[in-house]
Design brief:
Helix 2 links the parallel strand 1 and strand 2. The N and C termini lie far apart (31 Å). With 120 residues, this protein is of the alpha/beta class. The protein is built from five helices and four strands; from the N terminus they run αβαββαβαα. The chain is flat. It has one domain: Rossmann fold, CATH 3.40.50.
């Protein structure tokens, strides 16, 4: 076993959930759309961290056609519920801008709730 595989074997597993969002439905009907591109980028980043123990979860948390101005988004609510339930420990994305806006906008209560569960 090489050194990087030994290091990865001793690191705690970091299960990564990916949240994607697009504020309009325009283009979502395409076979490969913005949500797919966001996920593909996040998956590549997570793969680049495999030696740190990161793994990508298969569940999709995609909100197509939902504004980032509030927390009323089905996939975001499902992700937050999973985080609170302890099934997800880390949420990742290349830019994380949608999640940042969702949490850090006027959502200070969400920050307090997630601080103990979510590493961004």
């Amino acid at each position: 076993m090489n050194h990087s595989k030994k290091a990865a074997a001793t690191l705690p597993l970091v299960r990564c959930a990916i949240y994607t969002r697009k504020s309009t439905e325009e283009g979502l009907e395409q076979e490969f759309n913005s949500l797919d591109a966001q996920r593909e980028s996040a998956e590549a980043f997570i793969r680049s961290q495999v030696n740190e123990g990161w793994t990508c979860l298969p569940e999709r948390y995609d909100d197509g056609g939902f504004t980032g101005g509030n927390m009323e988004r089905p996939a975001l609510q499902r992700l937050l519920a999973d985080i609170h339930a302890g099934t997800k420990k880390f949420s990742s994305g290349i830019q994380n801008n949608h999640l940042y806006r969702a949490i850090f906008g006027d959502q200070s209560n969400a920050v307090r709730q997630l601080a103990q569960h979510l590493l961004i």
